Amino acid sequence: MRSGECVNPSKTTLFFGALAGVALVFALRGRALAEGAAAAGSSVDLEIVVGNGRGRVLCGVYERSGWLRRPIRGAVASIRGGMATCRFPELRPGVYAAGAFQDENLNGRLDRRWTGLPSEPWCVTRESRGTIGAPSFESASFAVGASPVHLRCRAR
Predict the structure, then answer these.
(1) Contact 56/78 with Cβ under 8 angstroms?
(2) Range of the domain at 21
């Protein structure tokens, strides 16, 4: 970004607000969805590399129609040795994307600077980053089939 250019705060705030909403949404929907999931499914393990051991990591898995708004599953992971792993069992075959953030102060939300940009580390699958605003579903998506899926992203 060149000096004097403005960031569109509405796109940026929308993205990071939605990512922070993972904490609440997964708590309310994750258990019910997990109980109602099809028995024949594959698991997804998302490893999140973090720069410090403070707090915990909150994760969500999304379908295209709810990308960064409505996770279909959520998980909380402890940090051990600079890494946290969120497991999503029995996902039906399809295309998904996932996001995570390190809740360093354990307040259950993604904290932001005055600009709307996050002050806590975050990532989405395939290390995707948006230029100005949220990364696209396509840039973060992965396929789930019959075999387990193992993914990694670095929260920064």
Answers:
(1) yes
(2) 9-154
